[in-house]
Amino acid sequence: MTATRSRVDYRSDVLLLVDSDADPSAFAELYERHVVSVYRWLNRRMGWLAADLTAETFTRAWLHRHRFCDDRDGSALPWLLGIAGKLVADAARHDRVETQARERLGLSCELADEDGHDEVERRLSPRLMLERRLAELPAHERDAIDLRIIEELGYDEVARRLNIRPAAARLRVSRALGRLRRSVPKEEW
What we know:
By secondary structure, this protein is an all-alpha fold. The chain has helices at residues 13-19, 24-46, 50-63, 77-105, 117-136, 139-150, 155-162, 166-183. Helix 2 packs across helix 4 and helix 6 packs across helix 8.
């Protein structure tokens, strides 16, 4: 609260969220009040992803502001940190899935050193190569890979979405992964 603002002008986080329907600047005030705390909390956990996750936290807070339940004397910070925590868990899960997919395909999981564009490009080339190889798959196999590996859906759900049997979904994913393995020469790994 600034020195020019009196205690009467102060609105709790609850009031800011309620008022944000008619006055979006109320949400901007909530943002200004908590953005540094949310960013610092995320930065301790996620480092360089903190800025993106902070933006996503406030985006989700805006979209779900009607779900806010005041259990901290009018402060929305615990609620915002709860949203941020879910995003951290989602990011960790996504990273784990991506790493497992690269390992299954036999692609390098090493990180680039800080000293040069050429090294970064060299290390990114397996990812770019994988994207090219995925684009070359038949659409039905590409869809199966996307649902099973990227979206992490179970085979029953993959089958439902593709309108096939679960056994056919397993076979489709297996064939696509095999085709990807065979399409990548060992020297490109």
